[in-house]
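Below: protein 1.
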Amino acid sequence: MIRIFAVAALLAFASPALAQSADSRLTLTFETGETGAVMVALYDAEAAYEGGAPARVARVDVAAGQHEAVFDLPAGAYGMKAFHDVNGNGKMDVNPFGMPTEPFAFSNNAVGNMGPAKWDRARFEVSGATAQTIRIR
């Protein structure tokens, strides 16, 4: 869970992903509530996913009706971590034990065991037009 918090800190000042010239387009559609925003971190390597900086970040304003994050990327392997900033304070809220109190999700709708989903569960290939629907829970 600590790594989720690190991502939350990185995303506190995240802005929408900027389009860049690339081979492929990834569209992530989030199924979640209608308040706040979804903070998205996209990783292009296992080492980064497990504790480094994201390759791209995005903020999806679900309060304004947005539910998608679109990234133009080079083809390759990626993993995604996201959380629903329900109260709009720019960070993932946690209880006194450090457990998240706001919903979160990983690519492939992967589920972690006593922590975030590992790279091998969240990893997916982007080639051409690629899409995933993510259920934030």
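Below: protein 2.
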Amino acid sequence: MAMTNFVSRCLHGEPPVIYGDGTQTRDFTYIGDLVRVNEQLLEDDSADGEICNVGSTDNIDILTLAEVVRDEINPTLEIEFDEAREGDAEHTHADISKANEIIGYESTVDIRQGVSKFIDWYRDNQKWYDPLVRSS
């Protein structure tokens, strides 16, 4: 939700809000990579019965993510900080080694490309998507 909220706020001229100090890290996976691997698994049975992580090897801290989003939409906005949310994971990162070994999976879109593509998608779908984000 962090990326979605950052994009929505910046598009509305509001600063992105980071809960905590921004050192938390996340492993974002571009939707196209997920679609591609699922299409492959429809025809490739080598992973049948296996549990594999499909993710990215491109970890990013939340402060950097907020800066990337802000800089693409409205670099004049200041980033705001609020209290960390109870129960938020400090760090997430998918271990894709098994998926790589079994089906040759690798992510193809790095976080900065993904952010740019997501912002374009968000703008194209803002009429219906933004009200959902703003009310969550």
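The first strand starts at residue 17 and ends at 19.
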